[in-house]
From TrEMBL:
Pfam families: Glyoxalase_4. The lineage of its organism: Bacteria, Pseudomonadati, Bacteroidota, Flavobacteriia, Flavobacteriales. Residues 3-131 form the VOC domain. Its EC number is 5.1.99.1. This is Methylmalonyl-CoA epimerase. Belongs to the methylmalonyl-CoA epimerase family.
Length: 134
């Protein structure tokens, strides 16, 4: 793993949270994007080399809606940038981690993504991210 790619934060209201984080960070979001397969609308903020992804549910039965119902607003996941997502998934499986995905899928911000189950990572949902190269 190369670095933390972003922190994902689950929010109830994307518009209100965008305004809050704009005040906090001093910049507006650089991108908003819906990921229909996950039932989520995302908003990305750049802060120096770091990124924050706000996640608001668009599907009341999707993973973000379930997270918000159970835990409320807050940090949802930590995403790590990787060079080769398939190799990293194999490495983590070999090391005994439970993956939530059998293969990478297209996520937000032009990334291939896969997730490590929080039960195998001290309660932290870990996302692996690899930039999609055309």
């Amino acid at each position: 793993m190369k670095k933390i790619e972003h922190l994902g934060i689950a929010v109830h209201n994307l518009q209100d949270s965008n305004a809050l984080f704009e005040k906090l960070l001093g910049v507006g979001p650089y991108k908003q994007e819906e990921v229909a397969s996950e039932g989520v609308m995302t908003s990305f903020f750049q802060n120096g080399p770091n990124k924050i992804e706000l996640l608001a549910a668009t599907d009341p039965t999707g993973p973000i809606a379930k997270f918000l119902e159970k835990k409320g607003e807050g940090i949802h996941h930590v995403a790590f940038e990787v060079d080769d997502i398939k190799a990293e998934m194999e490495r983590l499986k070999y090391e005994g981690f439970t993956l939530l995905n059998e293969k990478p899928k297209k996520g937000a911000d032009n990334k291939w993504v896969a997730f490590v189950h929080p039960k195998s990572a001290n309660g932290v949902l870990v996302e692996l991210c690899q930039e999609i190269k055309e």
